[in-house]
Amino acid sequence: MPSLYVNLLRRSSGLWKAAHQLNRTPYILSLNARALSVIHGNLDSLSKPVKDFVEKNAELCKPANIHICDGTPEESKNLLNLLQNEGVLRPIKKYHNCWHAITDPKDVARVESKTVICTPSERDTRPILGKGVKGKLNQWMSPKEFEAAKNDRFPGAMKGRTMYVIPFSMGPVGSPLSKIGIQCTDSPYVVASMSIMTRVGTKVLDVLGEGEFVRCLHTLGQPLPMEKPPVNNWPCNPEKTLIAHVPASREIISFGSGYGGNSLLGKKCFALRIASCIARDEGWLAEHMLILGITNPKGEKKYVAAAFPSACGKTNLAMMNPTLPGYKVECVGDDIAWMRFDSNGVLRAINPECGFFGVAPGTSTKTNPNAMATITSNTVFTNVASTDDGGVFWEGLEDETPKGAKITTWLGVENWNKDMKTADGKKMLAAHPNSRFCTPARQCPTMDPAWESSEGVPISALIFGGRRPQGVPLVYEAFNWKHGVFVGAAMRSEATAAAEHTAKVVMHDPFAMRPFFGYNFGDYLRHWLSFEDKSGLKLPRIYHANWFLKDKNDKFVWPGFGENSRVIDWIIRRCMGEESAVETPIGYIPKEGALNFDGLDSPVSYKELFNVPKDFWQKEVQEIREYFNEQVNQDLPQEVADELKALEERVSKM
Ligand code: OXD
Ligand code: MN
Fold first, then answer.
1. Which atom of ligand 1 is nearest to the CA of 261?
2. pTM
3. Do residues 628 and 640 make contact, with C-beta atoms less than 8 angstroms apart?
4. Which terminus of the chain, N or C, has fewer Cβ atoms within 10 Å?
């Protein structure tokens, strides 16, 4: 048996239980008395800065041993075996190399309330607000508090566990647009997930050399032996969870959660929060945007990037099968875009990730056949329900689950049916609303041929959007860049299950970045505005889309999904210079007849889709003003305040 495997087996929960029952310390702990053992890889093969970082973390967290990830298939296989032996993952028999994890129910989503940015001055992190106002755009932590919080949590936090060292590249390895991170973590589930979501391994260290990297330290915060056995074999420490970012030193520390954006540090922490700071410093953009390419029947291809808050169907849009005959849509990314103007002034985008961490409920052959095709192999599912024929289930899969299949909910309730209620009388869900699939992007049948191109794809249009049941038309075009920046700043959307919010309230979510800004939102706006002053840039046009308008009977008035290609088609035609718009106070909307409605399954009403109600927009202006005053205060750029005033005046003349 390979030594790695022996070591991994020693840490199995079975062993933990046995040792605990005997009231004895598990055998592995005796290793702590000895010098650190590296059980996989070689510390001396690391560059000095990486080695120093790893040694410092080991010194602080006191893991039993260290595993330096090489990114090989063999390593991945061993890791999955370990996770199975520990009872963290169960194989999904119906699919090839697919796995099912259930978390501690206390660890199911990003915890925005415990996510902070640490800068010397509070104003570097967020706008300074009036007395008594609770800030919603970032939480600040002083360097002193940060040191105290780190010292309170991390010393000895990995005792008895293996510390994995994950060298990872955000973006194609070696691309000038990519950046490298090193994550130390004591969660093998995190290693398995990071290996799907990012490019991991020795090749990353080769490209890194002695260069700069983002320092990521993550622990479950449950040194061994634990006082109580972990719930669902999912150690975590919700009471002390903290996710802290230090932009100045490009550092992330994450304690207490093993789930999603809290622990896969390449994703939201690095690729959005830290990267937005790097982007500000280096003159580019790190955004919460999908990227897709659309080809029309003439073979003309354009790319767009689109920012929608969590749970607005970004993954569905990125993987859409267009209903417009002769059109093709291909996916570059579903969540994050890094964009930089090239020497010809063209905005070029890469997807820094190479996997999808998609919300499972709602995903089906009807809503997203390409996602369904992607997830049938090499995928880790978390907090979904299971079926007795060895498959998975979530809300949305009712029509494609064999009749009579017995469903066990994510919480382990057997023989589930949709009429069941929880103890407090609520509808019992089979899968957690934020349950996920973590799957390799390369398996998606519609990946764009250029999705890994190192120069990135050229972006013609940027689209902002949200879930707006009332008042906001299907699509409108901003008058110019500055107005587009205002449109992004004024974005609002119904809240999401991806974070800890539960009620359906329309929340402000500027640029779909509200939980992901790495620095003061006012400065972020200034950064966006600055591109207008740079000469030689071919600024993309900016749009706002809303697939979620509802009628008086609470029914969606636009069919969405593949039909959204009709909207993107209009956007692209506009970018190519077509005169197919009319001006309204909020921006340009398609002229009647300009949006291709041919062949829609059921008729839609242009009037309903493009209504701009005066009373609604008067209220909207007031809402935006209140939000800016309260949340951005003195840091709101004058240009954005002027755009709001101009909108108000246009609306008042309607
Ligand atoms: C996500 C999100 O992508 O919350 O998980 O935006
Ligand atoms: Mn997202």
1. 5
2. 0.93
3. yes
4. N
